[in-house]
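Batch 3, record 17
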Amino acid sequence: MNSILKRIYEKVLPLVGEGNVADYIPALASVNPNQFGIAIYSNKGECYTIGDAKTPFSIQSISKVFSLTLAMKHYGEGMWKRVGREPSGLPFNSLVQLEYEGGVPRNPFINAGAIVVSDMNQTRFATPHYAMREFVRRLSGNPNIKTDKVVADSEYEHRSRNAAMAYLMKSFDNFDNDVEDVLHNYFSNCALRMNCVDLAKAFGFLANKGYCMINNEQVVSEQQARQINALMATSGLYDEAGTFAYMVGLPGKSGVGGGIVAIVPNQFSICVWSPCLNKVGNSLAGVAALEALSSEIGWSVF
Amino acid sequence: MNSILKRIYEKVLPLVGEGNVADYIPALASVNPNQFGIAIYSNKGECYTIGDAKTPFSIQSISKVFSLTLAMKHYGEGMWKRVGREPSGLPFNSLVQLEYEGGVPRNPFINAGAIVVSDMNQTRFATPHYAMREFVRRLSGNPNIKTDKVVADSEYEHRSRNAAMAYLMKSFDNFDNDVEDVLHNYFSNCALRMNCVDLAKAFGFLANKGYCMINNEQVVSEQQARQINALMATSGLYDEAGTFAYMVGLPGKSGVGGGIVAIVPNQFSICVWSPCLNKVGNSLAGVAALEALSSEIGWSVF
Amino acid sequence: MNSILKRIYEKVLPLVGEGNVADYIPALASVNPNQFGIAIYSNKGECYTIGDAKTPFSIQSISKVFSLTLAMKHYGEGMWKRVGREPSGLPFNSLVQLEYEGGVPRNPFINAGAIVVSDMNQTRFATPHYAMREFVRRLSGNPNIKTDKVVADSEYEHRSRNAAMAYLMKSFDNFDNDVEDVLHNYFSNCALRMNCVDLAKAFGFLANKGYCMINNEQVVSEQQARQINALMATSGLYDEAGTFAYMVGLPGKSGVGGGIVAIVPNQFSICVWSPCLNKVGNSLAGVAALEALSSEIGWSVF
Amino acid sequence: MNSILKRIYEKVLPLVGEGNVADYIPALASVNPNQFGIAIYSNKGECYTIGDAKTPFSIQSISKVFSLTLAMKHYGEGMWKRVGREPSGLPFNSLVQLEYEGGVPRNPFINAGAIVVSDMNQTRFATPHYAMREFVRRLSGNPNIKTDKVVADSEYEHRSRNAAMAYLMKSFDNFDNDVEDVLHNYFSNCALRMNCVDLAKAFGFLANKGYCMINNEQVVSEQQARQINALMATSGLYDEAGTFAYMVGLPGKSGVGGGIVAIVPNQFSICVWSPCLNKVGNSLAGVAALEALSSEIGWSVF
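Prediction for the assembled complex:
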């Protein structure tokens, strides 16, 4: 594995720096674009790394999988009356579809869907962001995972579009808590800083029938783990999910911080990271690395 | 396998007849709704059946996978400049998205996408429908597969909406041949009559790394077989693809004739059939049977 | 005029009570539906009334004309970079169009447009709602016009959809002030209570080349008065503006409180009121009364 | 009037040639862009002209008013169940709205609306285009008005988008005749060649209570004439109708051949022509000329 990892790292390295760093808030725009790391965590507990695998970055939308997991643990199948399970076919922050479909977001990985999931977690937890941070610390075995308050505050300051979505859902009676409270927690979750190793480990339960080896916990049932993977496979990479399935063939979830996690069911959880994004908002080098890895090792689930 | 099949057949039987038979053309509306069959074809060449597995039915949109396969064999990656690989997030016959996205359909399994694929095959074959019929006869080993001319003619007569899509694509310069010619062949492909056994066998190559055991032919490369499966997984069940991935976890493709094919990669190809459809146009009992099968045997790829 | 008014009043009376009172907030839902009044104010200063012409009601969207007038006085042609002058072709509270057109509302009479106009007035006035109330008191000569605080508060409480629009515009940088502040003032303007006589008089300047006879003031230029009338003619009656032009042929503006004002250029300003609304949100009896009046007297401007 | 006309002609002349000639078919693209003419026809039978007022040009969408007039004469109010009377808020050739609104076009002046009106006329007349040509010859008193067959054939060859609309309406059961037949006649109507004088005279009945002085015929009732004017006022200038009402204040109808007709009710019918178009498809110099004329003479109906 280490030699494959090295070969792929070197193959993809020339792409690092191509594309553009997310720049909608200053705190993200200032990241050094020439970083690239990979971590692969096996169901046997081995962790393979290369490059900047231990440099923390802003996990952003990858947090949506953790939020979903917390909501599924608590609400089970009941949660699906408030959010769909279908790919959206539109940019992640579109309001058009939300209006046509009566305030029920298409899936938990577009912004509107993640916000309504945050609203569910808001109802359940006294301090939702601390619950979330505690959760990812346990899953990854790293008690030092931090929230980047500068990023969280800056996201909140630029919240207009997400606020528009939240209010639109509220106008359709699909929102229970105070919009501002939910957005604060939502942005704090996005602003968690983790490195590739943290994320590969934290996602280990999805490659391992719902069981987290780090803290010996059945996080969700085996079936739920497969269901979360299915949702990632159809909706995890913004408006590139179909192409990612076609090229890589693995469930995955990306964030505008440049991280992408992917699951090889029953075998591995992977995190790649490189800050520059392609046109749809996925890490350009990250996608290339996952394509190369999957093709080399024959990992496609299909 | 036979006993599992029997158990699931009996479990699902009470649902047969629920929902509604497709009625947009008379030839489909008159089918007996109380039919239900399953065929499972293994990579070892075994075929397990139950119920009406040998009654032919109109394959309808399942033909889109065969059209795509023929186009991929000939055009390779070049075909993707004319059709996308992303889920659509809208009904299968919507023109809205086609207009916003400049006449390039989102994927080959919505109507517009299958029509543009038919346009590609029209350019390539002198008699496209006969080429297609010959192809499915070879894949299934059944030389008696017929085209239902009454259905084909009736579809053509009710072609307005599909004609609108074809002309809209033509207005965006994404159409090479005569609209009427392409529609004739497209509808003839949809009007092929096959039974569950035919379809399970004909889809065998997708469970078997692209190799068809029936006529010992490498139909497409292993990678292409996985890619076709990936496209089915993200876009194969109309606006229910995400839920199907969540519930069943297998690549699949449905048709309004009530058939659904599904692939267990490296193991089985499956065809279920029951004419009554749920609200999004998928066989109600067929989806239930695949849910039960997948859950019982633990077939989810995720 | 009095006899015509009487004849039309009696002709329309059987329609009063048909349709439905606006019920999205309790304060509006509780109004007595069986009320009906008309006031016609001539450029010679005569005022003809019949029915409940002196019963105050919630002017709602009619306030959008006053807001626009205040903004045009101050910003002149410069205001049109922030809001368009085209009919919308969609319901008054749609976000779809706002998203496609980059946060610039189509005209000042849909909600988004009126909110952005309120944002302009917020920038200009220290206490925007008091400035507005003072303005309509002066225009109508009635110093007792009040704001219905119960209605304003209830609208604010149910602000979600309007808040969504405001935040969406803010996300496109077409919003200068605090969203909550602007909405407070916007709803207070909608909650002004005026009767038919007040409104007919207050709109007199639009029938009189921009000149208000009540307080001898050139409110806007003659050209601006014609321009405001033109905007009412193309966009003043929600998604019924074209039919209103076809049937009535006069510039007009309606509100969900059941009031409609109309202008006979160079001659009359009219206010009709009856609380029950037709399907698109215009007073059912009010529209009928204006059709009858216009047809009887030959008032169509076309 | 002649001196005003001269002053405005000279004022606008520098704009002639700005913008772009319609180029979607070669026959239109080859027109000399530096042409500019105005004709004003009074209810007293006087005709004032300047510039290229006697050079024939392709009337294009101006023909939609003639088609509508023929349909209203025959079908009366019954026609409005097949086409609406509301502004569209979208480009003239959009299919989006047509799909959302179930195949009923918003008004008779967008392409879909004019095509459905042509379908009505197809039902009524044995040779619809000849009936139309005869109609405009009578209205203008010019028996030599010709159809430009090269333009008509070229439009037909590039019919894809209009064909898509027609088939989409057919799919919603809002189309009675053969799509190809109707399109042939529709394009022939668009391809009529008339000059400014022809058009000013032919539109005289709309300024004159429905009465045509040329051939002493009550073309439509006075009320219908006002209704046609109302429809032009709200929907006659593509996605610039609101701005045209704001700036010019007259009912008008434009065509991509560069012609614009406008009505001063009870006084004048006007035709301006200059081939170069602004961004929304209206004659750039033509709009400027009408703004100047209306403002100079105080013609706004508002």
